[in-house]
């Protein structure tokens, strides 16, 4: 640091020095900057040095105060140090300033010194001669001059002398440069508009608006002002001229040509008000203005008288400008058009005006055409409008050439055309052509006979009239006549010719009588009529409507046949058969016409179903319920309340059944049955096509046991179908809410009960189909059949079965059941296995009915599950397994979302089958045990793999309908006989010809043509009686279609059939078939009671074949097709005892049962050997029968594993049981009937054989207590009977339990001392209760006191 300053102070402390240093470091306070420490250089003299010289100079110019010891200390700086005696001190700075002087200066000149390098350098040169320098301080409006020391050739004058020298230099500078303050607006404007007048030595400072300063050397400033004044003298002037735009356009070309030579600096423009403005030098502007006005004064004008419509056309079409451009190009001088009341032309040339006026009068035209009312209303008017519009668009391409206007009036309409003559003439020609050639008029001529209307076209040919160019139509209303329209001249000519032709015709009526005469001339006789018309030149018109009039007189219905097809043998009227559906969901969400709900005490909200319907329907439905309730009066149990549905509910009606809570007396069941029957009858009588039922009863309001509710609903639906009066009802739906705790049991119970109602006892279909939401879903993935099955995987018999386990716990869930059946060896294998994550561990199957068991752990990971599914399929393929059963891995106890599991398994199967050919695996069964899992798997499969194939529906062919209704023994033949008083069938003809002879000949040949087609035949009344009643009904309704009549029997009983030959022959053939059938039916009925042929259906139920198929199978005609009760056709293989549906290769089992003379074997039994009375049949796990028994057992005995199930077939026990059942049905026919239930009875190995052979024995009562009487005890739930107290385990832990059919009838509460059941009422002591229960409201135990009241149906072996 070399730039020092000095100041005086007394004994500064280090702290004071530090504060002084900090003060000078802050430029904002002191003006200083980076500096050294404060240093003492002499007594009371201190020094501080700055890094930059500029910092030193700034601090020397200011006075300074620093706060030291709580007092302001004034510091006076000097560029050199002095002692107290005034002596000069030594300085460390070699270039310390000696003197300085402050000179007040003009501010703008100070700015100029900063901005002008020339002025700055000038001052610097002047001061350098004085060994001085300077610094400009614009803020203080000063210049500081410094005298430096130590310079070569510099001396140190006195301060006063140096100041005088500096002031002289500054004075000379002020004389050389001046500041000129300018306020004249004109000068300011010129200066601002001409920046090139200034330079770095001549600078303009704009201080504010209206004021500026020019700084520079004096002579340059004066020269600038002279130049500005000279420029001001040469400034342009502006002049407004009263010349319109159109006027200027007329003279523009000439004016601008002259101006370019004479007034080159004049500019022409227009302001916002369209005023013409001339700008430029004043002299040129004055001369240009004079010249312009002179030319404008030469403009001439001419008015033309044109129609107002033409003037309007010119304005709206934009053609004013078009003409102006055209005239400018084609005429000597431009012509402008101005449209007011008249058209005014303007131009500087009279000749151009005349030529323009002639062109306008020649080019423009208007035309008006009047159309009368008939022309406007003519059908051709639309074509005219289209043609005019098309021509208008074509003419106006590129610009509007013509305009057209329609003016409609009451009597006529006007078409106005305006525009260019050529285009107006073109459109006018279209209108004239329309009026002359296309506009229509209408007229008519009366006809003497309505028959002429139907054959008018033939009459025109007959009289050779030409009607081309006309529209001709013969009509019967308001009177028989011919209406025609067309061009006026053609219409008038045709009317005259038609009147003449009709007057020369002969018209005659002719009648042909006899059975079938209308039918003959309506069909085969048509050709004969056409032949006669050609031969005799006549028109023949039969009055076939006379047939209907004749039928109304005789009271016989009439039909109009489309052909003379024969009556099929055994044909009867088609009877509708409804579809049965069991679905999951809420009743309120069903889209059917009728919903059925229970209620108590006529209250809408008395049941959960009613509450759901009220919420769905909202206030409108609740109001409907109140209105229906108010108008229904008192409702008794079993009555039905009809309530209108609402749009929100999606149904037309809601039927509420007045119910009672369940009781053992049967009143609740009786009310429910009556209500269900009443609902179905209402559906028929009110012609509803669809109805949905809730399963009524299992809730807390009605307390009906699940099995009873399912059974009652299914039986009433079945009884309705068996009655054969289903009307138009096509869909009967049963709805099971999936959220119920016992939904699975309800669903399976309803489905099973309805399945047993599909066929009647003779094997005929009562309903068309039964479908459920839990039916198997069959899909195809990569050539493999993928089947979604709702069921238990332990019932599967596929080649491989997949067991889902965690490889640590083998005592719970499905894993426990599989290993229990498989045996201990398989479980030991698993316990010792070391299984890597995501791999399949395969073991032997042990006792499980498959070839291998594949154990997997899904790890609750979708990726692992997908890999396992893929590996399972590939492992089956390598081992040549054809089928595999896979559970919902991790979707149950694993807790994984079923849709995620479904997607993973489907993806795994797809991955295994898509990239390679699968030769061995044909079937993958996904076995799903829970309803919600099955539903979500089904939804996922349908969205990812494809839509579910439609389940097999039970359809029927026309021939099957013939078997649906048994024949009547003595049919009523009276409907076939024609009463003696009835009128004969006849046809009346209208004949029209050119001569009377032609008409007469045609009449005779018409009668002869009919008689040649007739015949008669005589047959006995006994032969006719072999017809079935439906055939008699059908024949009676078709006699007129066949063209026959049957006379009343003669004294010897013969009946005569007469009429058309084909009809008589069909009746003969029908009777012959009936005679042959009578013999065949006798044989079939006799065989049907002794031998039963049946087929194992899709749902695991045995379905009996009808009589005809039964006879075919018994006769061993295996090559023939047979038809079952649902109308399906089957190919049978009696050697293999299988059948496959026509068009399918899937085999179904056949079975033949031979009934005993006094006992009919149940269909689900196997055949018995002759003389055999007891047979124990072990059920296969793959059968639906096994699955149902096991499923019912596992519903409550969840921790038990079924080892084996045997069916007990004891003829003697079952015969006695059926007798007792019929007895109780007769006794309790008005209430609960026999009350047959499926119950459970635990037993021991010692007792089971005795029960199988001899039945249940109440004499053993008391072995396990007699709390409710000394009878045989049966439990509602299998879990109760599975108690070791009742099902005592054997040495190996195996327990036994019977599934029994029990006739409970009317029940009462049991008592421990009860040996016989008490009477139902004291008035009838002979009528006793049929069974006892532990709880009358919700029984869990039934006790019967007659051994034959229970039958041991199945024996379950379990652990």
Can you summarize this structure?
The chain is built from 41 helices and 60 strands.
Termini separation comes to 110 Å
Structural class: alpha+beta
Radius of gyration: 61 Å
Given as residue ranges, the uncertain stretches (5+ residues, pLDDT < 50) are: 83-98, 548-574, 947-968
What's the mean pLDDT score?
82
Instruction: Please bin the fraction of helical residues.
Output: 25-40%
Polypeptide structure, described:
One of its GO terms (molecular function) is transcription corepressor activity. Residues 549-575, 945-977 are annotated as: Disordered. Residues 773-945 form the Macro domain. Residues 557-568, 951-967 have a biased composition (Low complexity). Residues 1078-1152 form the WWE domain. The protein is an alpha+beta fold and 1359 residues long. It contains 41 helices and 60 strands. Strands 28-29-27-30-31-26-32 form a 7-stranded mixed sheet. A 7-stranded mixed sheet has the order 33-34-39-38-35-37-36, sandwiched between helices. A 6-stranded antiparallel sheet has the order 45-44-49-48-47-46, covered by helices on one side. The radius of gyration is 61 Å and the shape is flat. Mean pLDDT is 82; it is low at 83-98, 548-574 and 947-968.
């Amino acid at each position: 640091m070399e730039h020092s300053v000095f100041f005086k102070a007394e004994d500064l402390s280090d702290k004071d020095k530090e504060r002084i240093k900090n003060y000078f470091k802050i430029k904002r306070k002191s003006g200083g900057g980076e500096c050294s420490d404060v240093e003492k250089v002499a007594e009371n003299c201190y020094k501080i040095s700055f890094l930059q010289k500029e910092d030193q100079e700034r601090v020397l110019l200011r006075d300074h105060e620093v706060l030291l010891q709580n007092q302001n200390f004034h510091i006076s700086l000097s560029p050199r140090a002095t002692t107290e005696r005034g002596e000069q001190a030594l300085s460390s700075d070699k270039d310390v300033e000696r003197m300085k002087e402050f000179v007040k200066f003009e501010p703008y000149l100070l700015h100029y010194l900063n901005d002008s390098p020339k002025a700055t350098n000038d001052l610097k040169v002047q001061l350098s001669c004085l060994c001085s320098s300077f610094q400009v301080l614009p803020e203080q409006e000063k210049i500081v001059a410094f005298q430096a020391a130590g310079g070569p050739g510099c001396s140190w004058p006195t301060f006063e002398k140096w100041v005088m020298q500096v002031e002289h230099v500054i004075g000379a500078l002020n004389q050389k440069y001046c500041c000129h303050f300018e306020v004249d607006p004109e000068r300011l404007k010129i200066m601002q508009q001409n920046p090139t007048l200034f330079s770095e030595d001549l600078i303009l400072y704009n201080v504010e608006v209206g004021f500026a300063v020019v700084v520079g050397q004096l002579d340059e400033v004066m020269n600038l002002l002279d130049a500005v004044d000279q420029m001001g003298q040469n400034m342009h002037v502006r002049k407004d001229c009263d010349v319109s735009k159109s006027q200027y356009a007329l003279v523009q070309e000439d004016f601008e040509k002259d101006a370019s030579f004479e007034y080159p600096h004049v500019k022409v423009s227009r302001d916002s008000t369209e005023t013409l403005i001339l700008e430029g030098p004043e002299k040129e502007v004055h001369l240009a203005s004079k010249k312009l006005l002179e030319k404008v004064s030469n403009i001439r004008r001419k008015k033309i008288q044109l129609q107002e419509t033409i003037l309007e056309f010119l304005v709206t079409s934009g053609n004013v400008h078009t003409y102006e451009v055209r005239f400018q190009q084609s005429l000597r001088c431009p012509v402008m058009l101005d449209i007011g009341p008249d058209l005014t032309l303007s131009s500087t040339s009279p000749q151009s005006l005349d030529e323009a006026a002639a062109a306008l009068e020649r080019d423009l035209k208007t035309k008006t055409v009047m159309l009368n009312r008939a022309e406007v209303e003519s059908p051709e008017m639309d074509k005219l409008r289209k043609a005019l519009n098309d021509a208008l668009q074509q003419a106006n391409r590129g610009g509007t050439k013509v305009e057209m206007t329609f003016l409609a009036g009451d009597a006529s309409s006007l078409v106005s055309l305006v525009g260019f003559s050529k285009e107006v003439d073109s459109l006018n020609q279209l209108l004239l052509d329309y009026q002359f050639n296309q506009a229509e008029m209408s007229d008519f001529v009366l006809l003497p006979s309505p028959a002429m209307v139907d054959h008018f076209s033939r009459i025109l040919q007959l009289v050779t009239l030409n009607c081309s160019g006309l529209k001709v139509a013969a009509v019967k209303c308001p009177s028989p006549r011919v209406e025609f329209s067309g061009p006026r001249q053609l219409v008038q000519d045709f009317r005259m010719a038609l009147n003449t032709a009709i007057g020369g015709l002969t018209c005659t009526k002719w009648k042909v009588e006899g059975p079938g005469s209308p039918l003959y001339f309506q069909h085969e006789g048509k050709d004969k009529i056409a032949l006669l018309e050609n031969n005799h030149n006549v028109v023949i018109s039969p009055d076939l409507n006379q047939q209907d009039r004749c039928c109304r007189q005789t009271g016989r219905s009439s039909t109009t046949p489309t052909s003379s097809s024969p009556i099929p043998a055994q044909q009867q009227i088609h009877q509708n058969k409804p579809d049965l559906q069991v679905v999951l969901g809420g009743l309120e969400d069903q889209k059917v016409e009728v919903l059925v709900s229970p209620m108590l005490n006529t209250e809408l909200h008395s049941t959960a179903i009613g509450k759901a319907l009220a919420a769905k329907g909202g206030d409108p439905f609740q109001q409907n319920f109140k209105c229906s309730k108010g108008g229904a009066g008192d409702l008794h149990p079993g009555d039905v309340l009809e309530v209108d549905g609402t749009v929100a509910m999606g149904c037309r009606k809601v039927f509420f059944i007045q119910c009672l809570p369940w009781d053992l007396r049967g009143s609740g069941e009786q009310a429910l049955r009556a209500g269900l029957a009443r609902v179905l009858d209402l559906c028929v009588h009110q012609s509803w096509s669809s109805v949905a039922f809730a399963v009524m009863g299992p809730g807390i309001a009605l307390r009906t046991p699940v099995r009873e509710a399912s059974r009652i609903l299914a039986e009433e639906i079945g009884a309705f179908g068996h009655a054969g009066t289903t009307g138009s009802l096509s869909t009967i739906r049963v709805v099971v809410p999936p959220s119920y705790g016992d939904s699975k049991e309800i669903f399976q119970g309803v489905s099973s009960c309805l399945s047993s109602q599909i066929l009647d006892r003779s094997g005929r279909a009562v309903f068309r189909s039964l479908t459920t939401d839990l039916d198997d879903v069959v899909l195809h993935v990569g050539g493999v059949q993928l089947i979604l099955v709702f069921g238990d995987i332990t019932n599967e018999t596929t080649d491989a079965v997949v067991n889902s386990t965690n490889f640590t716990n083998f005592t719970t869930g499905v894993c426990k059941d599989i290993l229990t059946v498989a045996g201990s060896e398989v479980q030991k294998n698993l316990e010792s296995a070391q299984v890597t994550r995501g791999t399949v561990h395969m073991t032997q199957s042990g006792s499980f009915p498959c070839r291998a068991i594949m154990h997997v752990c899904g790890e609750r990971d979708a990726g692992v599950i997908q890999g396992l599914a893929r590996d399972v399929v590939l492992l089956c393929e390598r081992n040549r397994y054809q089928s595999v059963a896979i559970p919902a891995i991790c979707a149950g106890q694993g807790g994984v979302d079923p849709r995620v599991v479904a997607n993973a398994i489907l993806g795994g199967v797809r991955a295994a089958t898509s990239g390679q050919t699968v030769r061995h695996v044909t079937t993958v069964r996904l076995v799903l045990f829970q309803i919600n899992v099955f539903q979500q798997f089904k939804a996922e499969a349908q969205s990812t793999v494809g839509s579910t194939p439609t389940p097999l529906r039970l359809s029927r062919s026309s021939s099957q309908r013939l078997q649906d209704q048994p024949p009547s023994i003595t049919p009523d033949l009276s409907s076939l006989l024609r009463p003696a008083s009835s009128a004969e069938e006849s046809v009346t003809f209208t004949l029209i010809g050119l001569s009377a002879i032609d008409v007469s000949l045609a009449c005779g040949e018409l009668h002869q043509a009919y008689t040649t087609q007739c015949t008669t035949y005589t047959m006995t009344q006994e032969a006719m009686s072999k017809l079935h009643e439906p055939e008699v009904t059908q024949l009676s309704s078709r006699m007129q279609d066949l063209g026959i009549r049957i006379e009343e029997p003669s004294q010897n009983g013969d009946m005569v059939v007469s009429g058309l030959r084909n009809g008589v022959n069909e009746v003969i053939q029908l009777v012959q078939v009936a005679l042959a059938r009578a013999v065949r039916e006798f044989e079939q009925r006799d065989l049907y009671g002794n031998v039963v042929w049946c087929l194992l259906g899709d749902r695991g139920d045995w379905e009996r074949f009808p009589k005809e198929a039964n006879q075919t199978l018994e006769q061993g005609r295996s090559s023939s097709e047979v038809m079952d009760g649902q109308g399906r056709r089957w190919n049978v293989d009696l050697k293999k005892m299988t059948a496959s549906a026509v068009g399918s290769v899937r085999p179904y089992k056949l079975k033949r049962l031979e009934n005993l003379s006094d006992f009919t074997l149940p269909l689900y039994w196997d055949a018995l050997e002759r003389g055999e009375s007891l047979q124990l049949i072990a059920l296969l796990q793959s059968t639906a029968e096994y699955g149902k028994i096991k499923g019912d057992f596992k519903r409550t005995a969840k921790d038990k594993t079924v080892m084996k199930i045997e069916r007990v077939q004891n003829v003697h026990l079952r015969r006695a049981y059926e007798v007792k059942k019929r007895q109780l049905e007769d006794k309790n026919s008005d209430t609960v009937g026999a009350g047959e239930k499926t119950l459970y009875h635990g037993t021991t190995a010692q007792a089971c054989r005795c029960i199988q052979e001899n039945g249940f024995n109440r004499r053993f009562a008391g072995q396990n207590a007699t709390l409710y009487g000394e009878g045989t005890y049966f439990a509602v739930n299998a879990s109760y009977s599975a108690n070791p107290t009742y099902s005592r385990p054997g040495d190996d832990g195996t327990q036994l339990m019977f599934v029994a059919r029990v006739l409970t009838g009317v029940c009462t509460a049991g008592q421990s001392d009860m040996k016989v059941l008490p009477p139902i009422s004291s008035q009838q002591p002979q009528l006793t209760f049929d069974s006892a229960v532990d709880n009358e409201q919700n029984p869990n135990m039934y006790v019967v006191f007659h051994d034959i009241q229970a039958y041991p149906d199945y024996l379950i072996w379990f652990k």
